[in-house]
Design goal:
Shape: globular
Strand content: 15-25%
Organism: Dactylosporangium fulvum
Largest sheet: 7 strands, mixed
Number of strands: 20
Keywords: NAD, Oxidoreductase
Subunit structure: Homotetramer.
Active site: 252
Domain Aldehyde dehydrogenase: 16-489
Oligomer: single chain
Low-confidence stretches: none
Helix content: 25-40%
Mean pLDDT: 96
Distance between the termini: 100 Å
Number of helices: 15
Length: 519
């Protein structure tokens, strides 16, 4: 019998409504992982009200104790490591190696933040008045509504949920419908770690319902922070909604991430980086490689080596350890990717596989691992000769497709890298430190890699982008604390009299006309 996943309010399951949606294994379309009961707006708002009621008591729990709850979560994830890994592979089609890396990201995040409960530092600030002390404190924002995508169904939610809970907030989490089983499993581990009922609720809903729930929750004063991971287009709407209520959302959006290959680069290393950046997770990462920008003197040789690597890569069954990437995550993403392939133009040269589009018996891929008919498997595509005015150059393409273009000067490469208007991740392969630092200084990207992939976040480094990739907010490390706390200042005057700042201060009378006598 197919498992039914429902939303929770106050930690209690909600009676399922008629709207239901299957979560399907994208590598085996006959495997229904779970059935998801989709909630309505009233359920979303009820979860926000419940979170509002529960948050104050959670904030009163000492921060070091909240840190112990985070530590408990890390140990629970470790104890359930392989089960959660297998579920990620089954529900969203990641290879086992990438799924293990994703689960490890939760452990790393918990290990980092478990100590931050003892380091939610404020400051003691000197006053300009005698017998007066000034202080600053970090205080929780209140209720955080978190909306995440399914390409990282447990790791990215941990970037929001773990620090939000550590800081004393309550969380209403809306995961992707096609990754509901992963979300349900992760939420259960969070509750088992010691998070009280109502402090974390999960609401399964579609996009329009979620947006309407956010709108109502903001209007009624139930939501104090929105965290959103998704497309730039939807992120702009979420940011606009938050702004109308004088809030700043934490937006982690898409990318058209460039990789520059200079004339002095280690070409084999650059090929390895481009292969993983462009085609790992079937290109379904916000940090996936969008466009290779290659110095014209090495373009032909680099292209030859890259084509050989892409053509020889194993694609197919994500449970096979030899596979570079498995299926696209869902029929919705497959359909969207098919539309990106319509952007191929006459001046493009396509390579990388024996075909373009969905892999099938009629459109085979040499060396495919498994049976392509069972899932949503697609050919890897290299598109040579992309131009700045091409849609393939300008827009994020969520799937296994990478553009290739040339440059002559490094200034031109920097200009091409930033031209699409995103600003998430950028990489350069070079053995010249001057080129590396010139590129870092010139690009608008929030994250820059030297001789490394555009993908590969670490739990203690700030993650986030600028431009079309985000609003400057950052996740991970100590930087995310600014998303889930507000600074509160306090002044304490124990002089026994009113002391007015800037008016009753002690004055010093210097002799600024004094000059040393000439020798």
């Amino acid at each position: 019998m197919t498992r039914l996943i429902v939303s929770t309010v106050g930690g209690n399951p909600v009676e399922p409504q008629d709207r239901r949606e299957p979560s399907i294994n994208p590598s085996r379309l006959d495997d229904v992982v779970a059935e998801v009961a989709l909630a309505d707006v009233d359920t979303f708002v009820a979860a926000c009200r419940s979170a509002r009621r529960a948050q104050r008591a959670w904030a009163d729990v000492p921060a070091p104790v909240r840190g112990r709850v985070v530590a408990n979560l890390g140990r629970l994830v470790e104890a359930n490591f392989e089960a959660l890994t297998a579920l990620v592979t089954r529900e969203v089609g990641k290879t086992l190696a990438e799924a293990r890396g994703e689960v490890q990201e939760i452990v790393d995040t918990c290990d980092f933040f478990l100590g931050e409960g003892r380091r939610l530092y404020g400051q003691t600030v000197p006053s300009e008045m005698p017998d007066k002390q000034l202080f600053t404190f970090r205080v929780p924002v209140g209720v955080a509504a978190v909306v995440t995508a399914g390409n990282f169904p447990v790791a990215v939610p941990s970037w929001y949920v773990v620090p939000a809970l550590l800081c004393g907030n309550a969380v209403v989490w809306k995961p992707a419908e096609y990754a509901a089983a992963c979300a349900d499993a992760f939420a259960e581990l969070i509750r088992r770690a010691g998070v009280p009922d109502g402090v974390l609720d999960v609401v399964h809903a579609d996009g329009p319902t979620t947006f309407a729930g956010l709108e109502t929750g903001l209007r009624e004063g139930l939501i104090d922070k929105i965290g959103f991971t998704g497309s730039s287009e939807v992120g702009a709407r979420v940011g606009e909604l938050a702004g109308r209520h004088l809030q700043s959302a934490c937006l982690e959006l898409g990318g058209k991430n460039p990789m520059v290959v200079t004339e002095d680069a280690d070409l084999d290393l650059a090929v390895h980086g481009a292969l993983f950046a462009g085609f790992g997770t079937a290109g379904q990462r916000c940090t996936s490689l969008g466009t290779l920008i290659v110095q014209e003197s090495v373009l032909d040789e680099f292209t030859r080596r890259l084509e050989e690597a892409v053509q020889g890569a194993a694609i197919g069954d994500p449970t096979d350890p030899s596979v570079l990437y498995g299926p696209l995550m869902s029929e919705r993403f497959a359909g969207r990717y098919d539309s990106y392939l319509q952007w191929l133009e006459d001046h493009h040269r396509v390579s990388g596989s024996s075909g373009v589009g969905r892999i099938s018996s009629g459109n085979p891929r040499a060396g495919f691992v498994g049976d392509p008919a069972t899932g949503l498997f697609y050919h890897p595509v290299l598109v040579h000769g992309v131009r700045p005015d091409d849609k393939l150059f300008q827009q994020e393409t969520f799937g296994p497709i990478v553009g290739v273009t040339r440059y002559s000067t490094l200034d031109e490469a920097v200009e091409l890298a930033d031209a699409p208007g995103y600003g998430l991740s950028a990489a350069i392969y070079t053995t010249d430190p001057r080129k590396a630092f010139t590129f870092r200084r010139g690009t608008r990207a929030g994250m820059v890699s030297i001789n490394n992939s555009t993908s590969g976040a670490e739990a203690h480094l700030p993650f986030g982008g600028n431009g079309r990739s985000g609003n400057g907010s950052r996740q991970s490390g100590v930087w995310v604390l600014d998303q889930f706390t507000r600074w509160q200042s306090m002044n304490w005057d124990y002089s026994g009299r009113l002391q007015r700042a800037q008016m009753d201060t002690v004055t010093i009378s210097p002799d600024l006309e004094y000059r040393l006598p000439a020798s």
